[in-house]
Write a structure and sequence with these properties.
It is built from 23 helices and 28 strands. With 765 residues, it is α/β, with parallel strands linked by helices. Among the domains are: 220 residues, Rossmann fold (3-Layer(aba) Sandwich), CATH 3.40.50; 114 residues, Immunoglobulin-like, CATH 2.60.40.10; 83 residues, no CATH class. The two termini are 32 Å apart. The structure holds beta-D-glucopyranose.
Length: 765
């Protein structure tokens, strides 16, 4: 029976009932009409599938938290993590993953900052889009949350975000818009809070006006758990599905509203149709019973962490070549994930100390503080640690927040480390300047106490493989390449929302002057700027040019690794609208280059990235005049500037044009029309050919193709140009993955694990 027929068959009571869940994690089934139920559970760090009565969730890979993944500035890496999480969903029996969250980090105190990506809407939107694309390639639905203006946890069930339209459009709605338009999440979750007085779960201007009518969203809208204020008002506003189930309370309310005409039956039908459409789509593709590859996913978690951790300072001490002393309990009991609905039961758990032992090192170790809480000062342990530091050649000192410091439901009170840790840091660094500080925290912490350290690595919450990833970075197996997705201010009082953050009625008086947009506009000193992150190499940016055509700007140039180490660098493009001084991130590209290697790149972005919201005309608009473009390695490390004259642009055309920037690189040896045969003298080419021919052989064994077809396909494999894999996999193997593969093919000793991960999605056509 198709959905139109089912709708005709359903009674009013059944329709009302389908509009909310069965318990906390399922939609309702209806055997009379063969409607199955689908199962959902939380992300974003991994799959948290906790069954009723079970004290722990099913084991799943705990990947780095979004706060760290965002530092990779690599949406394709997020897609790979998303795809692995999607695979785990299928194995565990989850159809719909309640992730990712894309709310902006308005204050360093945000309790859920560890679950969110950035203070910048473009970076947050692109990370979310990558993650969603990855999850959904597995036939699992992703849920984009929490729509909208949910930037604090205090008072979250009743707080009121009071914000003008331009600020909403230019900043807070943008990451949602990018993710919705470019990745089409299966569902969008409304937030708990109110927006300008109206609950997000019944905000028709947002749920219907913006999300559906303007952005063309066709999926399901689901409430956050318990976020429904007035169910009927919610349905009228476009909030289709209530979670968790509330049958006894809201079903009769919906029935009565339809009977009295308060709610039209057409509106109810639309909600039910959306629910049934999603159930039909997802119940067909998941779950599968195939076990996921625990080791491969652990390895991906390690790689994702290593490509994301941020090297904030380095006076040349890193990478280490000799065994350091290790201080700080987090070296053996890492703080690698946050609390609340994002908490995962990991399949394995690395730690840095064990990683050193596995590698044959025998470091001296002092815990630095007593177990069971970072707060308690312990003079004996402090003395022991300081002594160890004094008598060692170098030290790796672990600092961080506690798991209970960062969670949903409340915001942090300050951004200081505990007194015990500050004291420890000062004493250890004074005793030995050759100290590398490693920080594990879900958000920004004040590191004044580590000012004199030789090096600082910011690991955020690095997931279950964080310990080995840190080993890779500290001993130079991998060069750090993460970039900060948020500003580290000098003092909390410097943050532009200092006076209004965390209140029940929170006025966004700083408007769009948030994060680096504010600090740069007023030229305020910060500890580390947005986009900052060092590597073990040096890079030069040359021949930078910018052109404009078709209401978009293309910035091109050449990036060269002029150091001695293979490393990745992220070229960041910031632009200011004509007539304004505020530069905003408009595009970026991350390139991994071996020593001396250079590569041309281009970043193309639509005018819309720098346009302002015209409150009178109610659309995006761009002023006429000179637009200033900055290209560099952080928001404050600008290597080139260009000026371009742009004609004004406004209205519908511009509003519709928000698309993530496109990036390109030029490679020397191979290109998208190189065939599998052309690649056969490389290890990657051999790996690709062997993978494809093995899969073909398996198809023959399963009887899916006969001998004739087998020989025909086998002959054809060699002739496929690489570009065909993008189309043949329906975009699972993306253009960006293709350019990464081409870059790897150019390398003399490419990372074969990286190649294997890229080739994973390629199939025989
Ligand atoms: C959180 C959501 C989560 C839901 C289900 C809520 O409290 O805000 O992010 O998906 O619970 O656990």
């Amino acid at each position: 029976m198709n959905i139109a027929d089912i709708l005709r068959e359903l009674t009013l009571g059944e329709k009302a009932s389908l509009c909310s869940g069965e318990g906390s994690w399922d939609t309702k089934d209806l055997s009379r009409l063969n409607i199955p139920s689908i199962h959902m559970t939380d992300g974003p760090c991994g799959v948290r599938n906790q069954k009723r009565g079970q004290s722990k969730a099913d084991p799943a890979t705990c990947f780095p938290a979004p706060c760290l993944l965002a530092c990779s500035f690599d949406p394709e890496l997020l897609a790979m993590v998303g795809s692995a999480i999607g695979e785990e969903c299928r194995a565990i029996g989850v159809h719909l993953l309640l992730a990712p969250g894309v709310n902006l980090k308005r204050s360093p105190l945000g309790g859920r900052n560890f679950e969110y990506f950035s203070e910048d809407p473009l970076l947050a939107g692109m990370c979310a889009a990558g993650y969603i694309r990855g999850v959904q390639t597995q036939g699992v639905g992703a849920v984009l949350k929490h729509f909208a203006l949910n930037n604090q946890e205090n008072w979250r069930l009743v707080s009121n975000s009071i914000v003008d339209e331009a600020t909403m459009r230019e900043l807070y709605l943008r990451p949602f818009e990018i993710a919705v338009k470019s990745a089409k999440p299966a569902a969008v979750m409304t937030s708990y809070n109110r927006v300008n007085g109206i609950y997000a779960s019944e905000h028709s201007a947002l749920l219907t006006g913006v999300l559906r009518d303007e952005w063309g969203y066709e999926g399901l809208v689901v409430s956050d758990w318990g976020a429904v204020n007035d169910r009927v008002a919610g349905l009228r506003a476009g909030m289709d599905f209530e979670m968790p189930g509330s049958a006894a309370v809201n079903d009769p309310r919906i029935l009565k509203a339809v009977q009295t005409g308060e709610l039209s039956s057409a509106t109810l039908d639309t909600a039910v149709e959306r629910i049934l459409t999603l159930v039909e789509r997802l119940s067909q593709s998941a779950p599968c019973t195939k076990q996921f590859d625990i080791n491969a996913h652990h390895a991906l978690a390690r790689r994702a962490a290593a490509e994301s951790v941020v090297l904030l300072e380095n006076n040349g001490l890193l990478p280490l070549s000799k065994t350091p002393a290790i201080i700080g309990r987090l070296a053996e009991e890492p703080h690698f994930q946050g609390s609340g609905s994002a908490h995962v039961n990991p399949t394995e758990q690395d730690n840095f100390l064990a990683a050193c032992h596995q590698a044959g090192l025998v470091p001296s170790y002092a815990p630095g503080w007593a177990s069971g809480g970072h707060e308690a000062e312990n003079p004996a342990l402090l003395r022991q640690a300081t002594e160890l530091a004094r008598n060692s050649e170098s030290v790796v000192l672990f600092l961080g927040t506690e798991a209970s410091d960062e969670s949903e439901g409340f915001d942090r009170k300050d951004f200081q480390l505990s007194n015990a840790q500050q004291q420890l840091a000062r004493a250890v660094i004074e005793a030995n300047r050759n100290t590398v500080v490693v920080v594990q925290a879900g958000g920004v912490v004040d590191l004044a106490c580590a000012e004199d350290a030789s090096a600082i690595l910011y690991a955020y919450l690095s997931g279950q493989a964080g310990g080995t990833a840190l080993y890779d970075l500290i001993f130079g197996e991998v060069s750090p390449s993460g970039k900060l997705p948020e500003t580290f201010p000098l003092r909390l009082e410097d943050t532009p929302c200092y006076d209004s953050f965390g209140l029940r009625d929170t006025f966004y008086t700083e408007k769009t002057a948030m994060g680096y947009r504010y600090y740069n506009a007023v030229n305020k000193n910060v500890r580390w700027p947005f986009g900052h992150g060092l590597t073990y190499s040096d890079f030069e940016l040359k021949d930078v040019t910018a052109i404009t055509q078709n209401a978009s700007i293309t910035v091109s140039g050449v990036l060269q690794n002029i150091g001695n180490t293979m490393a990745a660098q992220t070229v960041q493009v910031y632009a200011s609208e004509p007539g304004t001084e505020v530069h905003a991130l408009c595009g970026f590209i991350k390139l991994k280059l071996r020593p001396n290697e250079k590569r041309t790149f281009s970043v193309t972005f639509p005018y819309r990235q720098m346009a302002h919201w015209d409150e009178v005309a109610h659309c995006f608009a761009l002023n006429t005049g000179n637009c200033h473009i900055q290209v560099g390695f952080s928001s404050r490390d600008i290597r080139h500037t260009c000026t371009l004259y742009c004609e004004s642009w406004s209205g519908e055309q511009l509003s519709a044009a928000l698309a993530p920037p496109e990036t390109r690189t030029t490679n020397t040896r191979f290109h998208s029309n190189s065939t599998v045969q052309d690649l056969l003298d490389t290890d990657i080419g051999k790996m690709l050919f062997s993978k494809l021919s093995k899969e073909l052989e398996e198809e023959r064994k399963r009887g899916e193709i006969d001998d004739n077809f087998y020989h025909m396909y086998l002959a054809q494999i060699r002739q496929y140009p690489l570009r065909t894999f993008v189309l043949a996999t329906h975009g699972k193997f993306t253009w960006h993955m293709l350019s990464k593969l081409l870059a790897l093919l150019d390398e003399p000793s490419p990372d074969m694990n990286e190649a294997a991960t890229l080739l994973q999605t390629i199939r025989v056509i």
